[in-house]
Write a structure and sequence with these properties.
Number of helices: 17
Number of strands: 11
Helix content: 40-55%
Shape: globular
Number of domains: 2
Radius of gyration: 21 Å
Strand content: 5-15%
Strand order of the largest sheet: 1-11-10-9-8-7
């Protein structure tokens, strides 16, 4: 295995070629989060979300562990500075007034709001973005981490705290979680006027929330961003293409128009192929992140044009509980000749607690074995 310097040089060359659409191998990367980090540290999810020192210590140790233990198409040398973005996955739900439930051994989650439709609309409309953020748990966590990191070094590198709140986990997804998934899906059919009004409000408040974070954290960012921006909206797998076009597309368009003049990206989990054509042709999305092995990536890369690409994902359950042979087969099946388009296709994996490192190595080795691109055409 090459040393860190040689590895990083090779990765830089690969990714430089990728952005020029000249790469001769498909990049393979991995990501981690507190699900793994807390297991390594022997700390609880509740402590991570509610104790700033635990949050910072576990986060930094997790980033260092990635560099020390995971070889993939990313740098393994320690960065010039450790960048920590405090995380509370239910930040947006709490912003909309939902009660967050903290668990010891799993991610936090949030209860949906009760009350009538009119009360819900009034409550969301009255949300003052700046005041709500300044009174939130994520704001206190962010400020506390900044104080702790002031002048701090970790593994010989300075620590920088990056502002959260600059994206969203989804207009439709948050509408479902705030209203209740089953209730809101029924609203689409039983009371579409309410659904439209509610989605408009959620979109308005998401824009206000993101702008307020930039202002309060003094990021110096002016919207729209010229360099591109992306969002998640995993619950889109619940609805048809027609429902997306009617209820969500106009709100996505408004949000993207506020956020960026550059490349539009979206992350989708699950079976959401019914939306790909609309996302590309009507919304102008150029990168879809998340599609797993169940998607015929090559077919869609051909159908959606030369300026469209996938950041595909492995089947994380196979990475977790499969054998190295099964991992190898999964990667082989994803790395078809039709999918291996220079600058338009890469694969990522998600490492959780108890994911065998031999499976991670098997996936990366399979990327080298099956990911070679014979022609850059």
């Amino acid at each position: 295995m090459p040393d860190a310097h040689d590895h990083d040089k090779s990765v830089n060359e690969l990714m430089s070629a990728y952005w020029k659409r000249e790469n001769r191998r498909v990049p393979v990367t991995f990501s981690t989060d507190e699900h793994l980090w807390l297991n390594l540290a022997g700390r609880s999810f509740s402590d991570f979300y509610r104790n700033p020192k635990t949050h910072l210590d576990v986060y930094l140790a997790g980033l260092k562990w990635e560099c020390d233990n995971i070889r993939a198409d990313r740098a393994v040398s320690y960065p010039d500075r450790w960048r920590v973005c405090p995380r509370l996955w239910m930040e947006e739900n709490q912003f909309f007034g939902c009660q967050v439930v903290y668990q010891e051994n799993d991610y936090a989650w949030a209860k949906s709001l009760e009350g009538s439709k009119s009360d819900l609309l009034a409550r969301i409309a009255d949300t003052d973005a700046e005041a709500t953020i300044k009174n939130s748990e994520i704001w206190r966590l962010y400020c506390s981490c900044r104080e702790l990191a002031d002048g701090m070094e970790f593994a010989g590198r300075p620590v920088e705290i990056v502002s959260p709140g600059q994206g969203t986990h989804g207009i439709f997804t948050k509408a479902c979680e705030v209203r209740g998934i089953e209730r809101f899906c029924m609203d689409l059919y039983e009371d579409p006027d309410f659904a439209h009004r509610f989605l408009d409000l959620v979109t308005d408040k998401e824009i206000e929330r993101i702008r307020a974070w930039h202002k309060l954290a003094q990021t110096g960012v002016t919207l729209p961003l010229p360099g591109g921006w992306g969002l998640c909206d995993d619950s889109l797998q619940l609805i048809s293409a027609a429902a997306y076009r009617n209820f969500v597309l106009p709100r996505h368009e408004r949000l993207f128009s506020v956020m960026t003049t550059g490349t539009r990206q979206i992350h989708l989990c699950g079976y959401a192929e019914q939306h790909y054509r609309c996302l590309r042709e009507e919304l102008g999305v150029k990168v879809i992140d998340g599609p797993g092995p169940f998607v015929d990536h090559g077919k869609w890369l051909e159908a959606l044009g030369d300026d469209f690409g996938f950041n595909a994902q492995m089947d994380h359950s196979i990475l977790l509980i499969g054998t190295p042979t099964q991992v190898d087969r999964m990667m082989r099946d994803m790395l078809t000749p039709a999918a291996k388009k220079p600058g338009r296709f890469q694969i990522s994996g998600y490492i959780v607690a108890r994911t065998p490192l031999e499976n991670v190595r098997a996936a990366y080795e399979a990327g080298w074995k099956y990911g070679q691109i014979q022609s850059a055409g």
